[in-house]
Design a protein that fits this description.
- The chain folds into 2 domains: 2-165, Jelly Rolls; 169-247, Winged helix-like DNA-binding domain superfamily/Winged helix DNA-binding domain (Arc Repressor Mutant, subunit A, Orthogonal Bundle).
- By secondary structure, it is an alpha+beta fold.
- It has a 5-stranded antiparallel sheet. It has a 4-stranded antiparallel sheet with strand order 3-8-5-6. A 4-stranded antiparallel sheet has the order 10-11-13-12.
- It is globular, with a radius of gyration of 19 Å.
- α5 packs across α6 (201-208).
- 38% of the residues lie in helices and 24% in strands.
């Protein structure tokens, strides 16, 4: 699917610094994605005809926390890292968004500003629309229903993480974070299941409210035990069953 999308978009993205109209993207390629899965082709065409597209390199900020929510977005290919800044100025990774999902949907949350910062966790291809179009798209019942299902899942994931932070030891938190990543984004490789985007030990520390030292110590120990393999910005879970055991209360 990702290759099909990229092929369809290449001719419209020669200049990465500019946004281009979505003239070449066939609506049939999007019918399985949550915001579009209950819409007919005419409705999908209406939405796509008003979209602009942009290719982003890894590590690019799409929008910042507190900025005016002038646009909302859909991730066609790649991964997005959503981050918050605490009252003490610490950066916390709230969640990761995989391809095929809307993000930056401040209007759906009753907000005029973005509640978090969105940064590309890999190279990405993103559609966007002016926020003024949200109410028009929301008039399509299927679009609204599927969007709020996605919002509900994200809130559920964040609530789970809050409970983990309050009740679990650091080893459990890190194990659960890795399990979530491989469940959401993992791809099968020769020596296990790899998180399908670059991730550092610092990223894991920000996801789990732990220190870089603690993450490094645990990953090194797990690597010696054959549970994970850690490369530069890459993590492979070699023994998911043992990681599940580590995620449980001892």
């Amino acid at each position: 699917m990702a290759l099909l999308l990229i092929v369809c978009l290449l001719d419209g993205m020669r200049d990465e610094a500019q946004q281009k109209p979505m003239a070449r993207l066939d609506e049939s390629l999007l019918t399985h994605l949550p915001p579009f899965s209950r819409l007919d082709n005419r409705q999908i065409r209406d939405i796509l005809d008003q979209a602009t597209s942009k290719r982003y390199n890894e590590g690019v900020t799409v929008f910042g926390e507190g900025e005016e929510a002038e646009r909302f977005f859909m991730l066609l290919d790649g991964y997005i890292r959503v981050m918050r800044i605490t009252d003490t100025g610490e950066q916390v990774i709230a969640l990761h968004i995989p391809s095929g999902q809307l993000f930056g949907i401040a209007r759906a949350l009753g907000r005029d500003t973005y509640p978090a910062t969105a940064v590309t966790a890999s190279e990405a291809i993103i559609l966007s629309w002016p926020t003024r179009l949200w109410d028009h798209f929301a008039s399509y019942d299927g679009f609204t229903t599927e969007t709020y299902k996605t919002v509900g899942k994200r809130i559920g994931e964040m609530n789970t993480r809050i409970v983990e932070l309050a009740t679990q030891q650091v080893e459990q938190r890190i194990a659960n974070a890795l399990l979530r990543l491989v469940n959401q984004t993992g791809r099968k490789v020769e020596d296990g299941i790899e998180v399908d985007f670059p991730i550092t030990r610092q990223d894991l520390s920000e996801m789990t409210a732990s220190t870089l030292h603690t993450v490094s110590r645990l990953l090194s120990a797990w690597e010696k035990d054959g549970i994970v393999k850690s490369r530069r910005k890459r993590i492979v879970v070699s023994d998911p069953h043992r990681l599940v055991l580590l995620s449980q209360p001892h």
